[in-house]
Structure formats: structure tokens, C-alpha cells
Amino acid sequence: MIIVLKPEATGAQIQSIKAQMTGRGLVVQEIKGENTYMLGLAGDTSMLTEGDIIRNEFVERVMKVSEPYKLAGRRFHPQDSVYDIAGRKIGGGAFTVMAGPCSVESEEQVLSIARDVKRSGAGFLRGGAFKPRSSPYSFQGLGLSGLELLKIAREKTGLPIVTEIMSQEYCDVFGREVDVIQVGARNMQNFPLLREVGKLGRPVLLKRGPSCTIDEMLMAADYILVEGKSPVILCERGIRTFETATRNTLDLSAVPVLKKRSHLPVVVDPSHGTGYWHLVYPMALAAVAAGADGLMIEVHNQPERALCDGQQSITPYLFDKLMRKVEKLREAVREDEE
Ligand code: PEP
Ligand code: MN
Q1: Which domains does the chain have, with CATH numbers?
Q2: What is the DSSP letter of 314?
Q3: 200 near 173, Cβ under 8 Å?
Q4: pLDDT tens digits, one per residue of 51-67
Q5: Running DSSP on this structure, what letter comes out for residue 7?
Q6: Is the minimum distance from the CB of 132 to ligand 1 under 6 angstroms?
Q7: What is the CA radius of gyration of the chain?
Q8: CB 122 within 8 A of CB 98
């Protein structure tokens, strides 16, 4: 729900309506235009009638927001959100690439890949310490010692780190140590986890659930945003369809749809989105052309020996080639937009 205030509304009147709304347990967000002043209400507004609000003589009108998400939506926040994370900008035309191995395997492995992807222009090092594997018999990640190796790589290369949290139990340590906290596809609707990471005040990379709609993803983002502390980056990483030629079906139409519905930056992961290394290059370019704000790419120095997702990991050599091409393509897309 959005409350449009009359231009002559006084500061005291604005405070009084805000207090009324927060008193009802709603989150109130101010939206200031040149000649307009609005209040966006997030939370359960079902008990609120338009009549209750319009009774205040300084209210011009009340608009029902039909979308089930609010804080992630453009209606409340018309401008693109742009974040500065460890000196790297993302969103609103600023582009960034997160690259690294699916899972952290050893100091030597993660350092070598981190150095390579940095040289090619990656802005972030990605790497899983806690791995959500389909089989309990597969490599589950190095856990906290993997996080220590990521920290070493960060110290030696200066690249901020992106890594997945799987359980609330690690919120404290992730809140202290991790630059971008990844919530993986399987946990996109783990609502208690979303609420807890929303309290950490760290950027969250929220990956789309394999069977989740775009609206469900935006509602999941609201679970994080409603805590008022952690900014959210959305990540399209493919969805489950009847198609078996690829691991997932990378839904690139989600990029312009998300950009229209939401102000949050949108990153595309063509590695999980396709499942095959030779599809990563073309689909990464397609994602750039579709308007993505960034890419997440799995890179491994020895993909055939990788403990996880080797078949979809590209080599540092191919990553470098891809980065050169992305640069060119971004120039072309930018020229087209001007
Ligand atoms: C990953 O990024 O390594 C990962 C497990 O991704 P997803 O949650 O998208 O499957
Ligand atoms: Mn992976």
C-alpha cells in the first residue's frame, strides 16, 4: 500500500501517520519526489482499510500495491539500487563479475584461481566452503576451514569473497568474515535463514530456487529486506524444466522481467544455468545482452579434477577470453542504450 500525502502536509503530520503505521507493525519507507511525498507500507496491510488512512486530512490518496512483494519492487523504489561493496559497484549500469571454483579445495587451488580471475578482471572471488550436494555421499565442502582459505585468497589478491551460507548456525561468522553472503537456490525459500541473513548488514546474493517463480524470488528478497539491514542482489541460475539437454534451463527472460519489476541488481550464473562448460561462454554473453548487472562464473584450473561441478567449470584461459568479449559486448550494449 502506498500513501500519497498532500503537498501541504507538515512534518508533524507525516510523523504522526508514520507512527500510526509502525504501531500496526508495518515497515514504512519514505519516497520523496520533486513535488510528491509518499509512504510505502510493507507488511501485512490486510487489516488496513483505505478509509482508515484517508480520514487524515493531509492524505491525498491511498494506492493498493497489487504485487505480493514490496521492498524489492520498483513501485517503492523507482531508481535502480547501486551498491558499493568493497569498492566495487554493482547495479544501475555498473557491472561486476564474480568468479572462482564451485568449491574451495585447497589453498593452492583457490589462490591460483583467484589470481587468474583477478588478472582477467573479476571483481569478486566466489567459492563454496559449505556445499549443498544432492547426494550425502558427495564432497560436502571444507566448511569453516574452506572459509579460512577464502580469507587467505582475499588477503593475497584483494578480491572480496562470495560464499554460500547453508545454516543459521554460521550467521555470526559469515556476518563478520564474508563480503557477499550467498543464499543458494535450495535455500531460497528457507524463510528463517532469510530473516537471519537479513539482520547481518552484509550484501546477500539470493539465487533463484530451481522451481520458483520470479514473484516468489522477489518475495524471498522481501524476507531479507524487511529486516532493514542487508542489501540484496538477485541471481538467475536456471530453473528445472522438462528439458534434459542442459542441467537447468537458464531463464534469461527473467533478467528484463526482474529489471522491470525490481530495483535490485540482477546477476546471471550460466554455469549452474546450463551445467556444461561449453555453454557458459555463449550464455554469459546472452546474459550481458539481456541487461544483467553482473555474472557469476565457475572457473577451475583443473576442471577434470574438480571435487564439484567440474563439467560446468571453465578454465582460466577461457574465462579470460570471455572477459574480453564481455567488455566489447558491454560497449555495444551501452552505445545502443545511449
Ligand atoms: C553454487 O553457486 O555453487 C551453487 C551451489 O549454486 P546454486 O545454489 O545456484 O545451485
Ligand atoms: Mn557449483
Answers
A1: 2-63 (3.30.70.1140), 83-337 (3.20.20.70)
A2: B
A3: no
A4: 889 889 999 999 877 78
A5: T
A6: yes
A7: 21
A8: yes
